[in-house]
Design brief:
This protein has five helices and four strands. By secondary structure, it is an alpha+beta fold. The chain is globular, with a radius of gyration of 16 Å. The model has no long low-confidence stretch (mean pLDDT 92). It has helices at residues 30-46, 72-93, 100-112, 135-151, 166-169, and strands spanning 14-19, 50-56, 60-66, 130-131. It has a four-stranded antiparallel beta sheet with strand order 2-3-1-4, sandwiched between helices. 40% of the residues lie in helices and 12% in strands.
């Protein structure tokens, strides 16, 4: 990976995107969203993750984050490792999951193609972090992140999407505690 997409200084704000392998739409059920939400809460409370904005789409996640005391690369590694194991287990054990066999086959297929995995690969390897050096970049990424569900046709206004910080920025209270980016 080139130097362009790495965390240089974890104290700076970063826009981060990460996706499921093959862009599989996993996050279509509330129980799957909750794994990500709970993991972000855990990382905020226990690993020093500072969460400024977030959005969980059906196949990917967008965050604006920093950390005063810990390396963002370590936090992201741990977050993705934990959520991949928890989500794979939940998918495998979910009697209501009609796509179970297909999804597990796709994750196993991806895992076999990557020597870094024991069996399955849930997330694509890149986090694609982009440092937000100024207010213009921050505003652009906040708008992009919050408009993502609207552009995907999931809602008509950003603040109506439950799995996003858009409601917080619109004056309401979302499901995750955030630090407002200014």
């Amino acid at each position: 990976m080139g130097r362009k997409y790495v965390f240089h200084d974890s104290r700076e704000l970063y826009f981060v995107s990460f996706a499921t392998v093959n862009w599989i739409d996993v996050f279509t059920r509330k129980v799957y969203f909750e794994i990500i939400v709970d993991s972000l809460v855990f990382c905020s409370k226990n690993k020093g993750l500072e969460l400024y904005a977030w959005c969980i789409m059906p196949s990917h996640v967008h965050l604006i984050i920093s950390s005063e005391n810990n390396r963002l690369s370590d936090i992201m590694r741990d977050l993705k490792r934990h959520t991949s194991k928890a989500l794979l287990k939940l998918i495998a054990e979910n009697p209501k999951e009609s796509r179970k066999e297909w999804m597990l086959w796709m994750f196993e297929r991806a895992g076999k193609r990557n020597a870094n995995n024991e069996k399955f690969q849930f997330w694509q390897q890149s986090n694609h972090p982009i440092a937000l050096f100024n207010a213009k970049m921050l505003t652009q990424r906040l708008d992009y992140l919050h408009q993502n569900p609207v552009k995907a046709g999931l809602v008509t206004t950003p603040e109506h999407y439950q799995y996003s910080s858009a409601i917080d920025y619109a004056g309401g209270k979302g499901v995750l505690p955030i630090i407002f980016a200014t």
